[in-house]
């Protein structure tokens, strides 16, 4: 049995890390912000990071979108994480080592850190090896500060390290360490999560001129504190989120004119629509249906980029219409810097050849993430190609489970939750973006203003959380743990008036009306949660050995029962 479908609410099912959205939103309704963060961290070690830069598939799946607009799930996650940080996080205690088998993680990006997090919680001695001086991967080096502050990344990583994860930086895989050397050093399992760190090349004349710097190198250089002479006019080539980041960063560095050249139309851009809109607000100009033919230099430095106009034909393998060059449409844009941003590739020179696929990515089982080398697993961008932080976290969690089972001698592939593939439905995305401006979306504030803002916005956050329809069964938030009993609901037919309320509110669909109009409980489905007993206006429903008064008291102190 390689996989099974667990009945999650839509938001949780759409999340690659299966974060329990309904639970933490329920806790926010009650003002239990610290508890909400604890619930998030069961599945996700980066609540503040994902609260800022996640592409929020949970919101696209939110049932509320069919009524008006989706709940501001990502903003709520960011808010509770920021409140915890400002109020002071409870000190993290190292998890006692339960097992002796050492695990090596190659790469300290979101996939590697998520795997280390899960394995540390299980009690394994984990060591993370990272080539760069700081941990975080693309989160640390390629997402600009205006989107994701560096102190936020450090704060999240410190939590993981506090569990007892060992880190070795400045160590290059394939040079300083290899799979064989790690095994000789006693590591019983290895997870390769090196990401896609190299920029794809344009392969056109002039790409080696001074003033041409690829987007990943451009953003990484700035993160390392290097000063770049960008000039007054910058051309970014590409249509993804990295291209948008590079263009908006160039604007912030003082470029007077920044343009994005993209070979398809706006509708085919892989960048998120809201990112494109923000770039336009920053003053970035977009030129669609143009593709670079060559980069023209003068004195060894960029002077202009020559492009051809394009037309779109039938869709290609990506589902987007294929761009076709239009002959004799050459034209030039005078620029001081060119930033190609057409994608990222994996640095395969450091990898064992037997795990490299024909597509230049690591070959790994899509469910277990096991490679052809026993005890070696791989995940994240190195396996899928460039993706998102939350997808990398999901891969790290799957790898950790596989490694645990491998080391315990269990079947690796058994009892897996099937991943929910998120399909880009642009109509839903547009509907989500038409949502009113979230009252909990944090504006640009100085550090001193943050604390006052967080205090002021908490009421708005609870209101936003109450927009949740609670469309899943029990949220598993543990707020009503006292109600999780083995007893079944019992209906007193002499008191039942057939109002149908219990039928409507039962989160498990365990109550139906019989032919006489009286509520009837299916004992095989009933979980004994007490929701029906607490809401019955005639006290016609009780649980064995538990009084209605106790249920009502527990509900009023812990649970929020929504009737929509």
Quick description:
This protein has 564 residues and is α/β, with parallel strands linked by helices. It has helices at 10-14, 21-29, 33-43, 47-53, 57-61, 73-87, 110-122, 138-141, 150-162, 179-184, 215-223, 241-252, 273-281, 381-384, 389-407, 426-433, 447-465, 501-505, 531-535, 548-558; strands spanning 102-106, 126-130, 166-169, 187-192, 198-199, 233-237, 257-262, 285-288, 290-298, 301-315, 321-325, 331-334, 337-340, 344-345, 376-378, 489-491, 511-513, 519-521, 541-543.
How does this model look, in words?
This protein has 564 residues and is an alpha/beta fold. It folds into four domains: 10-90 and 420-465, Orthogonal Bundle (Fumarate Reductase Iron-sulfur Protein, Chain B, domain 2), CATH 1.10.1060; 102-197 and 346-407, FAD/NAD(P)-binding domain, CATH 3.50.50; 225-340, FAD/NAD(P)-binding domain; 481-558, Alpha-Beta Plaits (2-Layer Sandwich). Helices cover 34% and strands 16% of the residues. The chain has 20 helices and 19 strands. The protein has helices at 10-14, 21-29, 33-43, 47-53, 57-61, 73-87, 110-122, 138-141, 150-162, 179-184, 215-223, 241-252, 273-281, 381-384, 389-407, 426-433, 447-465, 501-505, 531-535, 548-558; strands at residues 102-106, 126-130, 166-169, 187-192, 198-199, 233-237, 257-262, 285-288, 290-298, 301-315, 321-325, 331-334, 337-340, 344-345, 376-378, 489-491, 511-513, 519-521, 541-543. The chain has a five-stranded parallel beta sheet with strand order 3-2-1-4-15. A hairpin with a 2-residue loop joins strand 9 and strand 10 (301-315). Helix 2 packs across helix 17 (447-465) and helix 6 (73-87) crosses helix 17. The longest helix is centred in the last third of the chain and has 19 residues, at 389-407. The radius of gyration is 27 Å and the shape is globular. The protein starts with 9 loop residues before the first helix and ends in a 6-residue tail after the last helix.
């Amino acid at each position: 049995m390689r996989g099974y479908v667990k009945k999650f609410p839509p938001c949780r099912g759409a999340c690659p890390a299966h974060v329990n959205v309904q639970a933490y939103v329920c806790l926010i309704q009650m003002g239990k912000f610290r508890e909400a963060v604890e619930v998030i961290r069961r599945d996700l070690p980066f609540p503040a990071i994902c609260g800022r830069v996640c592409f929020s598939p949970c919101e696209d799946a939110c049932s509320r979108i069919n009524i008006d607009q989706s709940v501001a799930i990502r903003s709520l996650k960011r808010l509770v994480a920021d409140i915890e940080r400002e109020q002071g996080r409870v000190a993290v205690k190292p998890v006692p080592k339960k097992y002796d088998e050492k695990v090596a993680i190659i790469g300290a990006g979101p996939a590697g850190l998520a795997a280390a997090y899960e394995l540390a919680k299980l009690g394994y001695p984990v060591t993370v090896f990272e080539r760069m001086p700081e941990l975080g991967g693309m989160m640390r080096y390629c997402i600009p500060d205006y989107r994701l502050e560096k102190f936020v990344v450090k704060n999240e990583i410190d939590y993981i390290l506090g569990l007892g994860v060992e880190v070795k930086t400045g160590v290059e895989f394939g040079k300083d360490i290899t799979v064989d050397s790690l095994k000789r050093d006693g590591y019983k399992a290895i997870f390769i999560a090196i990401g896609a760190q190299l920029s794809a090349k344009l392969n056109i004349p002039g790409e080696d001129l001074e003033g041409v710097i690829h987007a990943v190198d451009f953003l990484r250089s700035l993160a390392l504190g290097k000063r770049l002479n960008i000039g007054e006019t910058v051309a970014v080539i590409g249509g993804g989120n990295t291209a948008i980041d590079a263009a908006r960063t160039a604007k912030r560095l003082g470029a007077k004119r920044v343009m994005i050249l993209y070979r398809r139309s706006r509708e085919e851009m892989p960048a998120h629509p809201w990112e494109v809109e923000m770039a336009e607000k920053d003053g970035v100009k977009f030129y669609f249906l143009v593709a670079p033919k060559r980069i023209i230099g003068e004195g060894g430095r960029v002077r202009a980029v020559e492009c051809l106009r394009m037309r779109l034909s039938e869709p290609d393998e990506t589902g987007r219409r294929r761009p076709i060059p239009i002959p004799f449409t050459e034209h030039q844009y005078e620029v001081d810097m060119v930033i190609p941003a057409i994608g990222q590739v994996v640095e395969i020179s450091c990898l064992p050849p037997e795990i490299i696929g024909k597509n230049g990515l690591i070959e790994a089982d899509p469910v277990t993430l096991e490679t052809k080398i026993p005890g070696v697993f791989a995940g994240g961008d190195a396996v899928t190609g460039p993706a998102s932080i939350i997808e990398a976290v999901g891969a790290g969690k799957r790898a950790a489970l596989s490694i645990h089972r491998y080391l315990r001698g269990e079947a690796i592939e058994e009892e897996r939750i099937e991943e929910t593939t998120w399909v880009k439905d642009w109509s839903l995305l547009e509907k989500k973006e038409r949502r009113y401006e979230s009252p909990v979306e944090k504006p640009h504030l100085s550090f001193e203003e943050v604390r006052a803002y967080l205090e002021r916005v908490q009421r708005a956050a609870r209101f936003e959380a109450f927009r949740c329809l609670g469309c899943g069964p029990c949220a598993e938030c543990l707020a009503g743990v006292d109600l999780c009993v083995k007893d079944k609901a019992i209906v007193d037919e002499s008191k039942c008036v057939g109002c149908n309320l219990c039928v409507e509110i039962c989160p498990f669909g365990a109550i139906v009306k019989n032919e006489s109009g009286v509520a009837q409980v299916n004992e095989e489905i009933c979980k004994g949660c007490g929701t029906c007993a607490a809401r019955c206006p005639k006290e016609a429903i009780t649980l064995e050995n538990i009084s209605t008064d106790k249920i009502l008291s527990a509900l009023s102190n812990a649970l929020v029962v929504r009737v929509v």
